[in-house]
Amino acid sequence: MTMTTIKTAWTALADPVRAWWAGLGRLPRMGVYALLIFGALLLPNDQIGSFMSPYSDWQGLLFFPIGGYILLAIGLNVVVGQAGLLDLGYVAFFAVGAYSMAVLGKIYHWDFWEIIAVGIAVTALSGVILGAPTLRLRGDYLAIVTLGFGEIVRITAQNTAAIGGPNGMNGIPHPPNLTTWAFPSAQPFSALGLSGLTPFKYAELDSRPYYYLMVLAIVLAIIFSKRLANSRVGRAWAAIREDEDAAELMGVPTFKFKLAAFAIGASIGGLAGVLYSTQTVSIIPDDFPFILSATILAAVVLGGSGNIPGVMLGAFLIAWVPERIRFLAEYRVLIFGAVLVLMMILRPEGLLPSRMRKAEFAEGTGGMGSMGGEVSTSKKTVGAGE
Amino acid sequence: MLHDFIVQFWPSTTDGLALGSIYALIALGYTMVYGVLRLINFAHSEIFMIGTFASLGVINLMGISTPLGGIALVGTLALLIVVSGTVSGASAVALEYIAYRPLRRKGASRLAALISAIGASLFLQQLFARILIPWWFGLPKEKGALPIQGRFVQREDLLTLGSFVIRSDKLIILVAAVVMMVVLDQFVVRTKLGRGIRATAQDPETAVLMGVNIDRIVSATFAIGGAMAGVAAALYMLRFEETNYFVGFLLGIKAFTAAVLGGIGNLRGALVGGLALGLIEMYGASIFGTQWQNVVAFVVLVLVLMFRPTGILGESLQKARA
Question: Element (H or E) spanning A241, and its range?
Fold first, then answer.
């Protein structure tokens, strides 16, 4: 009963927002985007921090896991949410990006900005290498092969002495400073808590410049991903997700598009890896365990796979809630597990599903098809309205 | 490299068969549930973990001081198998009831079910790590392995032919696994419940129309798969004599690999896949070094799926559904 109340309240809250957004013109939308980005830039504020995370360093938290999870979730959303491919080894691409940064930056002394471009290219390539032999497989086989791939990458890093073996790599260089310009200590900057902040100076101690870099990466990833979703590629992905055989019959080269989804998702994961690696300075293979893949996937599904605001919300919650309830430190993962189960039972389509996905879920397919042996006591008829 | 392989050939073979038997028994749970529900029961590895703790509890309660042999060993092993099998089977049924059935009722997507499974898996692991193990053993030994008290099986070489040695514990494991497999296979082929399972796997809607109670079939499937994981857990304790809360993770992934290798949904495939994977791993480890053991296993999985996507024996509990 209470669940129904919560559900109703949620719908009452979400629907007007949705309607308002749908009625908005192009220019006002740009304004809202600008406001959101501006808000994101103000987040590292100490007052916000003391409320949001009294137990840990809020500014560091904003960079990773919060920012990092959001970027990773946007990347995984391309694969899982848009193309409907189940990837359980997404962390591998994060690792490839992080190690690209470490190897090129530390051993070959490349410049950070060059490494970003190369790192993205390398991870995209690794996505193609993984995808080419495996994407002809059915969904579950794909899941288990990607899981295996994630483990292979981690174990290989562990066993390769040239990249530090189990000790990983440290002394990964920071990006060069763009400028050491600092916000002036006058109003309104001091009121916003920005005064003295050097937004383009990448030093060891202040994680805010890295956070801004992360925000930039997230914004670019969102634009990229949204543009793709509304393009021919995005429509092809939707077709593949809903019915691969039908898509193939209609002349969609499904294999090519699935490969593209893998490569694009991988490159966003690689970007996150490069950023993570340059900020944390040292990485070890155990930074990239299977559980991270599962966590990002959970973020995507929890938020509403296929819908970028939903995915971001999911990633934020999954990164932030465990930190906020640190007083329950010991039981965080326990609670996380239970919440995942509950969430799937109560709202399997996620917190903020896209319209399209909601309809697909109502049909009982939702991208990966329904389970066998379903004994629906109340078989829903899917009408035009749903 | 090759020299190591030749020198270690027989030890690798017996080790591989013992390990493979355990994979095969765990793989049964994956393969049966997948056959009926088309769901990767990700929490199955935790069902196995629960079984190892049940065995650990029994062994510690019995307080065995000298290694057992002969009838006493067989009796103890039978007891372990029954207790672990029951505990694991019951846990699996409870898991299905709590984490999967509501989703099934709603006709939710398999992706949602998989996330629920991952959540259940985390929950069970942490339940042991944070609550049950500290409560049971008094100390928060969350990282270390929990060994059994004393050693309960006498490990003797039964037959020695040059480098080919059959050791008692490994032989027991292989024999027990094969016997369980044959019993289960006959059960599924001959009994009414087994027929119901096969019917549901092939075509759930028609099965319902023919009067099969699907909820009961699904519960039975989880009970049997869980019980087999419990048997695997008892044998695992016999072989390795220690456990911890994350013991299931890697074994679970390997067992699922074994199920896919043999042809998912295929009971005999689980045995073939398990033994094959155990052998491949051990041979691979002797050639490339033990640190590459897991990589070898996954690379083989990828290769098999590329060239024979339905596994070695093909999918048979369900006729391959596209």
Answer: helix A232-242
Task: Tell me the C-alpha distance between A175 and A152, whole Å.
Answer: 29
List, as one string, the DSSP characters of A65-119.
IIIHHHHHHHHHHIIIIIS----S-THHHHHHHHHHHHIIIIIS---HHHHHHHH
Q: Is A141 on the interface with B (CB under 8 A)?
A: yes
| Closest alpha carbon to A280 in A139, A162, A171 | A171
Distance (Å) from the alpha carbon of B280 to chain A's nearest alpha carbon: 16
Q: Are A301 and A81 in contact (CB under 8 A)?
A: no
Question: What are the extents of the domains in chain A?
Answer: 62-288
Given B115, B124, B301, which is nearest A344 (Cβ)? Answer: B115
CB of A379 less than 8 A from some CB of B: yes
- Determine the Cα angle at A101 with ends A96 and A104, to 5°: 110
Token code pair at residue A52: 């949001």
Every domain of chain B and the residues it spans = 2-307
DSSP-assigned letter for residue A62: I
For the whole model, what pTM was predicted?
Answer: 0.85
HEC assignment per residue over chain B? CHHHHHHCHHHHHHHHHHHHHHHHHHHHHHHHHHHHHCCCCCCHHHHHHHHHHHHHHHHHHHCCCCCECHHHHHHHHHHHHHHHHHHHHHHHHHHHHHHHHHHHHHCCEHHHHHHHHHHHHHHHHHHHHHHHHHHHHCCCCCCCCEECCCCCECCCEEEEECCEEEEHHHHHHHHHHHHHHHHHHHHHHHCHHHHHHHHHHHCHHHHHHCCCCHHHHHHHHHHHHHHHHHHHHHHHHHHHCEECCCHHHHHHHHHHHHHHHHCCCCHHHHHHHHHHHHHHHHHHHHHHCHHHHHHHHHHHHHHHHHHCCCCCCCCCCCCCCC
> Chain B neighbours among A 96-125 (CB < 8 Å)?
none
Mutate to test the interface with A, among B37, B46, B110, B291 (most CBs of A within 10 A): B110
Amino acid identity, residue B318?
Answer: Q
Q: B-chain residues within 8 Å CB-CB of A365?
A: 109
Establish if A367 touches chain B: CB-CB under 8 angstroms.
yes
Choose the mutation target among A154, A345, A349 for the interface with B, i.e. most B CBs under 10 Å. Answer: A345
Cβ within 8 Å of residue B39, ≥6 positions away: A371, A372, B33, B100, B110, B113, B114, B117
Digit-coded pLDDT (tens) for A210-240: 999 999 999 999 999 999 988 999 999 999 8
CATH 1.25.40 fits B2-307, yes or no: no
Neighbours of B256 (CB within 10 A): 30
Residue A302 has pLDDT above 90, yes or no: no
Query: To 10 degrees, what angle do helices A254-280 and A91-102 make?
Result: 50
B289: left (phi over 0), alpha (psi -120 to 50) or beta: left
Interface check for A156 against chain B (CB to CB < 8 A): the answer is: yes
Whether residue A344 is predicted with pLDDT greater than 80 in this model: the reply is yes
Task: Identify the bridge partners of residue B157 per DSSP, sorted by sequence position.
Answer: B167
Structure tokens at B30: 């994956």
- Residue A89 has φ and ψ, to the nearest 5°, of -125, 35
- The amino acid at residue A123 is T
Spatial contact of B30 and B45, defined as CB atoms under 8 Å apart: no
Tell me the per-residue pLDDT of A17-73, one tens digit each, with 9 for 90 and over. 878 888 888 888 888 888 888 888 888 877 787 777 777 788 888 888 899 999 999
- Inter-chain contact B40–A143, Cβ cutoff 8 Å? yes
